[in-house]
Amino acid sequence: MKTINSIIIAIIFLIAIFVVKTDYKSLYSKFLSSTMNSIDNTSTIAKSEYKDKLNGMMNSLGNKSTNVQTPGALVVSDNLLTNNVSKINLSSKNIIDITNKYRKENGNLPPLTENTKLDFSAEKKLQDMFVKGYFEHVSPEGVGVGDLGNQVGYEYIIIGENLAMGNFKDDQALVDAWMNSPGHRANILNKRYTEIGVSVGKGNYNGKTIWMSVQHFALPKSACPAISDVLKGMIDFDQKKIKEMEGDLSSRKAKIESGQVSEGMTTNGQIDIYNSLVKDYNSLILDIKEKINTYNEQVRNFNNCIEGI
Questions:
Q1: Is residue 284 within 8 Å of residue 63, measured between CB atoms?
Q2: Cβ contact 146:66 at 8 Å
Q3: Residues with Cβ within 8 Å of residue 135, at least 6 apart in sequence
């Protein structure tokens, strides 16, 4: 009888152990699932907010475009020209001085400041027209004044060009020809321009020796509040870092869910590391959002400046 009782007690004890063990596993599984779900929700929300904000930043950046002013063909009266080409001696400096004189006489506009990069872009245009035998604002390859500004490293908000071809008596006659043409006059008297570059020279065009002249006008990008390229670079760098962190977190999550030992740690240890990395991830998200807010404010200030010009 004692033997039977002992056997019954042993069976009850084993059943109790099995039930407790099963409940423990169930409870641990629920805890792990709850922990992972909580972490995943946090990271997913943060990641979504970041991407939405970044897309908004990129849209803001592309809102405004620069402006290019190029008048039509120049019509010149004969009394401004001469047949004695050997006596012509046009000067870029004199052309700028006369241009600024007309700006003062017409509305007391501030004088244009000579910019060496604009001188260079005007010279490139002059030589290109002689070499390729054309007289147009856009080259046979489709290169215009805006492209030339970019080629010489001149960052502008607006840019314009005046062209002239003809054996003008002197610098005064040349600028007078531009002033007598509505489109060219509008460029000379444009209130928005602050800088100028000029190039003049003679060469062969359609078998004849003739002078060509180029004026480049512009308002530099520096006239408006700057948009930080450094800050944009930092945002791009952090974005790459976020992608790397996402890959690492995804890998760690898979290992935790499989129950395998990783880096010599149990599942609990892996969860602690995972949670710590998620905190770093979310902290980086907040940091990037602050940088994007700052960047967007710079873009807005720049755009508002352009609208006010």
A1: no
A2: yes
A3: 129, 163, 165, 205, 212
Give the Cβ contact number of residue 81 at 10 Å: 16
> How many CA atoms are closer than 13 Å to the CA of 186, on its beta-carbon side?
10
> Per-residue pLDDT tens for 143-179?
999 999 999 999 999 999 999 999 999 999 999 999 9
Q: Which of 172-181, 194-203, 256-265 has the lowest mean pLDDT?
A: 256-265
Residues whose CB falls within 8 Å of the CB of residue 128, separated by 6 or more in sequence, listed in order: 139, 143
Residues 6+ apart with CB under 8 A from 178: 74, 162, 164, 184, 185, 187, 188, 215
Q: Rounded mean pLDDT of the chain? A: 82
- As a whole number of angstroms, the distance between CA 134 and CA 182 comes to 22
On whether the pTM is more than 0.70, the answer is: no
Phi, psi of 208 (to 5 degrees): -125, 150
Q: How many CA atoms lie within 13 A of 273 on its CB side?
A: 18
**Could you give the CA distance from residue 111 to residue 309 in angstroms, rounded to a whole number?**
17
Single-letter amino acid code for the residue at 55: N
CA pair distance 165, 212, nearest whole angstrom: 4
Rounded to whole angstroms, how far apart are CA atoms 227 and 244? Answer: 27
Q: Which has more pLDDT, 49 or 118?
A: 118
The model's pLDDT over 6-46, given as tens digits with 9 standing for 90+, comes to 555 555 444 444 433 334 334 334 433 443 443 333 333 23
